[in-house]
Amino acid sequence: MDNAVFNQQLFDFLKNSPTPYHAVEQMAQRLEAAGFERLDEQAEWSLASGQRYYVTRNDSTIIAFQTGHGDPVKQGVRMIGAHTDSPCLRVKPNPELFRKGYYQLGVEVYGGALLSPWFDRDLSLAGRVSYVDGKGRLRDGLINFSRPVATVPSLAIHLDREANNSRTVNPQTDIPPLLMQAPEKDAVPFKELLAHQLREEHPQADVAKVLDYELSFYDTQPPSTVGLNGEFIASARLDNLLSCFIGLQALLDADSAQPAVLVCNDHEEVGSMSAEGAQGPFLSSLLDRWVGAAQRPRVIARSMMVSADNAHGVHPNYADRHDGNHGPLLNAGPVIKVNNNQRYATNSRTAALYRHLSETLDLPCQTFVVRTDMGCGSTIGPLTAGNLGVRTLDIGVPQFAMHSIREMAGAKDGYTLYQVLRRYIELESLD
C-alpha cells in the first residue's frame, strides 16, 4: 500500500463514519473481510493460538486482537489505542422547537467543540435508534440521512455590527439547527421522522415505535485533498478517526506472529469514564479472558501501549502559541507528545523505542511539549497506563483546527505513522 492508496481508503472510512457507531461498524466490516472472528461478550470464549478476533461494546467501542504464535507472558502484547468519538452536536431527548414557523431541533454540545465553524454548513444527521418491533422486542438500528437536512444560519452582520470583534456563541440559544419550515400544528413528531428513516434504510426491520436515540449532526462536505500541491487532507473527525484508521490498517497489514491489540474507545472527548471508555474495564477484562487474571501482571510487564491521538501542529498565524523548540510541522512526521505532569504518558524508554523504529525505517518524527504557561490536553494514554500499569507512548499526527467541524492534517503523516506502527506490531521483543 502506498501513500495515495492509504489516503483514499482513509477518505472512504471517514465519509462512512459520521458517528462512533458507524465507525465501529466500518471497522468490523474490514476486520471480518480480513478473517477476524467476531466474539460475543456474553458467550464463553475459546481462543486459539495464531488466531485473530474482535469484540465490540455498546456498538461504539471495538477491540481487535491477534493471539500470536507464542506465549504472551514471554512475548508481551503490542497495544495500540485510539478513540472513536469527536466533538459534535447531539440531539436532545425532547428536541422539537417551533419558532416563527420553523422546525428546529434542540442540541447538546458533545465534548469541547469549536462552535463558530458549525454555522452555515450543510448538516446531516446520523446515529443509533432504539425501537420496539411488531412483536414487542427491543431492537437497534443505525441511520444516516446522508443528505443535507439541516443548517445553523448565521445572524447577518447588519444585525450584529460587532460580530467580527466580540461575538460569542450561546450553545443553548444560538445553535439549534434549522430542519424545515413547518408550523407546529402540521409538524410530524421527530421520532416518527426517525421511524420513517429506519424503514427506508432497513426495509427488513419491523419498526413499530421509536423509543430512544443517540444522534449527531455532522457536516456533509466529504474529505478532500487540499493545497496547490496536494500537501494536506481535510475532513471532519480527523481527531480521532485518523488514528483509528491508522491503527486498524497497521494491524490488518502486519503479520500475525506476535500478540497484538487495537482498542478504539468511545467517550474520550468527555473524560472516558464509562463502560466503554478508557477508564472503564473493557480492555482489562478482555486481557483477563485472553491470558488469565493471574498472568495478566506478567503480560503487562512485557507489553507496551501506543496511544495514538492527533497533535497540535504549529499554526503559521499563531506560532507564538507553541514552545519555540517544539512546534510540530505538518508533513514532517508523527509527533511524540511529552508532558512531565503526566497529561501524556510518554517516558524516555517508550519515546526511544519509537525513535529507534522511525530511524530504522528512515522515517521522520517530531516532539511536542506545551508552552509552560499554557494548559495541556490529554488522551487515553495516561488513563490506560494508570488502569493497566502498562508502559505507554503518546503520539499523533499533527493537525490544524482541532475540534472544529472540519480539520486539516498533512497528506504524508498518517501513512508515516502507519508504517511505524506496522513495524511495531511485528517486533519480536519490546525489551
Which short descriptors sum up this protein?
431 residues; alpha/beta; Aminopeptidase; Aminopeptidase i, Domain 2; 2 domains; 9-stranded mixed beta sheet; 6-stranded antiparallel beta sheet; 11 helices; 20 strands; 26% helix
CATH architecture of the largest domain: 3-Layer(aba) Sandwich
- In the CATH scheme, what's the topology name of the largest domain? Aminopeptidase
Strand content: 25-35%
Enumerate the strands of the largest sheet in spatial order, edge to edge or round the barrel.
Answer: 1-2-3-13-4-14-18-16-17
Number of strands: 20
Q: Label the structural class.
A: alpha/beta
Fourth-level CATH superfamily of the largest domain? Zn peptidases
Q: Rg from C-alpha positions?
A: 22 Å
Q: Could you tell me how far the N terminus lies from the C terminus, measured between alpha carbons in angstroms?
A: 29 Å
| Total domain count | 2
Walk me through the structure.
Its cofactor is Zn(2+). This is M18 family aminopeptidase. It is an enzyme of class 3 (hydrolase). With 431 residues, the protein is an alpha/beta fold. The protein has 2 domains: 3-86 and 236-425, Aminopeptidase, CATH 3.40.630; 88-219, Aminopeptidase i, Domain 2. It is 26% helix and 26% strand. It has 11 helices and 20 strands. The strands form 3 sheets. It has a 9-stranded mixed sheet with strand order 1-2-3-13-4-14-18-16-17, sandwiched between helices. A 6-stranded antiparallel sheet has the order 8-7-10-5-6-9, sandwiched between helices. A 5-stranded mixed sheet has the order 11-12-20-19-15, with helices on one face. The longest helix is centred in the middle third of the chain and has 16 residues, at 238-253. The two termini are 29 Å apart. The mean pLDDT is 96.
